[in-house]
Write a structure and sequence with these properties.
heterodimer; A: 299 residues; alpha/beta; Rossmann fold; 5-stranded mixed β-sheet; elongated; B: 325 residues; mainly alpha; ABC transporter involved in vitamin B12 uptake, BtuC; two-stranded antiparallel sheet; 77% helix
């Protein structure tokens, strides 16, 4: 599927470059090495993922955004835009009637059927990888370029990288804190190291007790968590039955009073606001380190 | 004499196997076999103790109870409908429970409400089927079946709709519930005590059940109060199914498989087939849950998905042996 898409993109790219070899094109390079070009910066953009909506606004192209999907609630201005419904099954008729010249899609959130239809309709589709924290800077630049806000996009990308560095450089060398992140309580679903949130944890010097796993979000055993003795247990709202961990009174995380509910949404979306989530993560890790130091100091 | 000794021998064997699987469930966990160190008072010993007593024991008891209840309900329903393909879920009870449980997950209610949702869904559909199918005459059996089947498929549509509407994070919790999962089994005691009481209530009817398998007309002519028996059996089966589903989600296949396995092993006499089915059902679910917890530990699988994988080959092997002899 991915291969087919790649071939399609490359063919498309070759065709376009053959016809418009002399025209000034706006091109961005995708993480997989392929190029994506527009003959001119997009003026009517549709975003099919909340994090892409945030990025479009971040590079100053909010005015050019004509449609979004459900849960596109940031910045507040995004709420007034027409919603196409679920990101996985957007309303295609509405999408067409908005006459977009660029549709932004998230790789992990795009249904192949939707991508196929968009391609058939001849609509320009840019696919965001949005898998790693490092992607955020790259994609801010790309979205800036594609929307004609090149300078602002580059500036935002640099700001993001700079703030991330400032926030995390000290922590990456600090004592590692053993952490566990809960997505869902029953069955207990967590994240493995390849996950976006695990990356954020690493930036704060939190070691994921789950480690690497074949699945991005494995179903985990409570026993394994108890044995790994995490010092910090985290979740994000709705934090269903999160307090049930407190019955394991011997668990370091419970003793440390370190059952932390992180701010909503920001850690789930590969957009600049992830810094807020990382800040909360780092604060939680710092608190655990401080407790450890004070208990080491007392006899 | 051989004919009475053989089933008893097999029942004893099944009981031993059940106890063995139960002990294995207590011993094996996410980190392989660990000898229980109940008398070590260091923190590692205390951790072992609480893992076994607070995680594994309630879970294995819930697994046995759920399996036993479904096997009991399956046996009763198969006699009641005189249909070898019938399982406890054809009466729409699991569908009702699923709608209740998934709805409470979708609304983001706490875990307790999820169990209560399942319970109220199960009993609502139970009452609905009884209410709609209540009537008299030769029609009743078909009407009961049809009402249940239609209700079950309607509820199936509601379940699909709920899954389509669910947010990504809740989806896996919902799917695990639908496949049958014991990770959050509440209060195994409720299901265990329920299993005990329902078994005791069924035992006096066992001889009547044997006669009923030959047909209602001949049962009635042999002095069986067919009408009372039918409703009594239906209500017992329904309550057993509801208890099982509340405990472990809609674990499939065991309610169909365990009664047939028991009949193949100990014969069609329900004095033996019923306890046999209960032990087999309980063991199957315990075994499936053991594998679900340990196969790719510390990752977990839904126990329900493994039951058919264990049970189907076992059943086919027995069926094949039966046809040869």
């Amino acid at each position: 599927m991915k291969g087919a898409r790649l071939i399609l993109f490359t063919t498309l790219f070759c065709l376009i470059s053959a016809f418009h070899a002399h025209a000034a094109e706006t091109c961005v390079k995708n993480p997989d090495g392929s190029h994506f070009c527009l003959s001119q910066p997009a003026q009517r953009i549709i975003s099919l993922a909340p994090h892409l909506t945030e990025m479009v606004f971040a590079v100053g192209a909010g005015e050019q955004l004509v449609g979004v999907v459900d849960h596109s609630d940031f910045p507040p201005a995004a709420r007034t835009l027409p919603s196409l419904g679920n990101y996985n099954q957007p309303d295609m008729e509405m999408l067409l009637s908005l006459r977009p010249d660029l549709v932004l899609v998230w790789q992990s959130g795009a249904s192949p059927a939707v991508l196929d239809t968009l391609q058939r309709l001849g609509i320009k589709v840019w696919v965001s990888r949005g898998e790693h924290i490092a992607d955020i800077s790259v994609e801010l630049r790309s979205i800036g370029l594609l929307s004609g806000h090149t300078a602002k996009g580059a500036r935002e990308a640099e700001n993001f990288a700079h703030e991330l560095h400032a926030l995390t450089q000290a922590r990456e060398s600090a004592r590692k804190v053993r952490g566990f992140y809960q997505i869902w309580p029953q069955p207990l679903i967590t994240i493995s190291n390849r996950h976006f949130i695990a990356e954020a944890m690493q930036h704060c010097g939190i070691e994921n007790i789950v480690g690497t796993s074949s699945s991005l979000t494995p179903t985990w055993s409570v026993e394994a968590v108890l044995r790994a003795r995490p010092e910090l247990i985290m979740t994000s709202p709705p934090a269903r039955d999160f307090e049930s961990w407190s019955r394991w009174t011997d668990l370091p995380a419970v003793k440390n009073n370190a059952l932390v509910i992180l701010p909503p949404d920001v850690l789930m979306r590969p957009a600049p606001r992830v810094l807020e989530g990382i800040r909360a993560l780092c604060t939680a890790a710092d608190r655990v380190r401080a407790i450890q130091i004070s208990s080491d100091a007392s006899p | 004499m051989i004919h009475t000794y053989r089933p008893i021998f097999i029942l004893a064997l099944l009981l031993t196997a059940s106890v063995g699987i139960l002990l294995a469930n207590l011993g094996f966990g996410s980190s392989g076999w660990v000898w229980p160190r109940f008398f070590a008072h260091d923190s590692a010993g205390l951790l072992e103790y609480s893992i076994i007593m607070e995680l594994r024991l309630p879970r294995v008891l819930a697994a046995f109870a759920a399996g036993g209840l479904l096997a009991l309900a399956g046996t009763l329903i198969q006699v009641l409908t005189r249909n070898p393909l019938a399982d406890p879920y054809i009466l729409g009870i699991s569908g009702g429970a699923a709608v209740g449980a998934l709805l409470s997950i979708l609304l983001g209610l706490p875990l307790l409400m999820q169990h209560l949702g399942a319970a109220s869904g199960a009993f609502a559909s139970l009452l609905l089927v009884i209410g709609l199918a209540h009537g008299d005459g030769a029609w009743t059996r078909q009407r009961l079946l049809l009402t249940g089947v239609v209700l079950a498929s309607a509820l199936g549509a509601v379940i699909t709709l709920l899954l389509a509407l669910a947010p990504e994070t809740a989806l896996r919790g919902m799917l695990f519930w639908l496949m049958g999962d014991l990770s959050g089994a509440p209060a195994p005691w409720l299901a265990l005590i329920g299993l005990g009481i329902l078994t005791l209530l069924t035992l006096p009817w066992v001889r009547d059940l044997n006669i009923l398998t030959r047909g209602e007309a001949s049962a009635a002519s042999l002095g069986v109060a067919v009408h009372e028996l039918r409703w009594g059996v239906y209500v017992l089966a329904a309550i057993a199914t509801a208890l099982a589903v509340i405990t472990a989600g809609s674990i499939g296949f065991v309610g169909l498989l365990a009664p047939h396995l028991a009949r193949l092993l100990v014969g069609t006499d329900h004095r033996f087939a019923l306890p046999g089915a209960i032990l087999l059902g309980g063991s199957l679910v315990m075994l499936a849950d053991l594998l679900a917890r340990t196969l790719i530990a510390p990752q977990q699988l839904p126990a329900g998905a493994l039951i058919a994988l264990i049970g189907a080959p076992l059943f086919l092997a027995l069926l094949y042996r039966e046809s040869k002899s």
